[in-house]
Design goal:
Blueprint lengths: L2 E2 L5 E2 L7 H5 L14 H13 L4 E4 L2 H11 L12 E5 L3 E11 L4 H20 L2 E13 L15
Parallel strand pairs: 5-6
Antiparallel strand pairs: 1-2, 3-5, 4-5
Helix pairs in contact: 2-4
């Protein structure tokens, strides 16, 4: 025996419901879920931070040294996420960045600009809410420091 549905259709037991009934009212874009890895958010943040004038490099001197050695091994590159730690939840993310600034720049201004750029880039690209961007100034690059030239190539 069949029961009449509220929309006037009849469903036969054991049959497949019509496509509209199977889908419910969910829009195609709302069917399923997207998971964003911590490393993806860290890369986005790293690219945004590196674009800020006054930022010389990401990570502490020790981390940069280890990464230089690791980068020489095929598949060992971590430069994109060096000095960045991201914690990603379902709808929010928090970031910790360690940066090296150029001597003579306003650290407060560079930090503010990095924070603004990172928040804008991560929120635009991922849709996650950035709840905090903590910045640790790990070093200052002095004008006569020549050891980190590979970090930022000269402008052309």
């Amino acid at each position: 025996m069949t029961d009449a549905a509220t929309d006037g259709t009849t469903e036969v037991p054991g049959s497949t419901p019509p496509p509209a009934a199977r889908r419910g009212t969910a829009e195609p874009a709302d069917r399923g879920r997207t998971t964003i890895a911590d490393g993806v958010v860290a890369k986005i943040a790293g690219m945004a931070a590196r674009d800020v004038p006054g930022v010389h490099a990401m990570g502490s001197g020790l981390a940069r040294t280890f990464d230089t050695v690791r980068d020489r091994v095929p598949g060992g590159s971590r430069a994109a996420t060096r000095g960045i730690r991201a914690e990603v939840g379902e709808v929010q993310t928090a970031l910790d960045l360690e940066i090296v600034v150029e001597y003579g720049v306003s650290i407060a201004e560079v930090s503010r600009t990095v924070r603004e750029g990172v928040v804008a880039a991560v929120e635009r690209m991922t849709g996650l809410e950035v709840v905090e961007v903590n910045i640790d100034i790990g070093d200052v690059r002095l004008p006569d420091d020549g050891g980190d030239e590979e970090e930022r190539p000269p402008l052309q």
